[in-house]
Amino acid sequence: MGLRERLLAVQGDIAAACTAVAREPEDVTLIVVTKFHPASLVQELAGLGVRDVGENRHQEAQAKAEALAALDLNWHFIGQLQTKKARQAARYASAIHSIDRERLIDALADSRDIAAGERPIDAFLQINLTDDPGRGGVVPADLESLAEKALQTPSLRLRGVMAVAPLEEPAAASFARLASYSERLRALAPDASAISAGMTHDFAEAIAAGATHLRIGSAITGNRPEHG
Ligand SMILES: *Cc1c(COP(=O)(O)O)cnc(C)c1O
Q1: Can you name the CATH fold of 3-221?
Q2: Which residue is closest in CA terms to ligand 1's atom 11?
Q3: Pocket of ligand 1 (CB under 6 A)
Q4: At how many degrees (to 10) do helices 171-188 and 143-151 cross?
Q5: I want to staple 204 with a disulfide (CB 3.0 to 4.6 A). Which of 17, 46, 98, 213 is the partner?
Q6: pTM for this entry
Q7: Which cofactors go with this protein (predicted)?
Q8: What residue ranges do the domains of the chain occupy?
């Protein structure tokens, strides 16, 4: 199968997973994760109609976004983001899915000139679904305080929650917890109803749990090239 066939197959699987739980495929945004793949693959995807792409390393994302600026794609930053790289990432990223600490919000605070008409960055609060504090994401107990901080930051538009399902438990159980955190966030910010969840191996479970933004890589791009 080539890239086009894999993309069509995943789009078909997404539609089927939506139908199975009486959801509309239009309510689900597919972000194709292109990390470790060259800009030429992103260009090919754009030729197939893909508008949303995801990257998890700043330098790589920056280089590709610059090379492909003419395509006007939506670049979603989905990896751990160093505070000192935040302002640079804000130049090309239309969305950041990995906001997990107040210092990162501080670093993004004046990254967009809202008064001059610049669009705010779509902000997803990443939640750690494990007990390991070394994993990315805010601990659930701190979700509300982080959300308050984001809501007070005009350069950010708080969209919702994001998580990666841990390997240690069935994805459906993790995504059920994520859905409950999404409810907590909506109690504070009714518009922040997006749920960024679902990867190659668990996107059907994520759709069943209400995911609105899927981050799918290898099922579409094929295996990632070796990286050191
Ligand atoms: C790599 C990555 C994905 C995509 O993973 P696949 O298993 O290739 O679909 C999604 N989300 C995050 C945060 C990632 O780093």
Answers
A1: TIM Barrel (3.20.20)
A2: 215
A3: 33, 35, 56, 78-79, 164, 199-200, 215-219
A4: 50
A5: 17
A6: 0.97
A7: pyridoxal 5'-phosphate
A8: 3-221
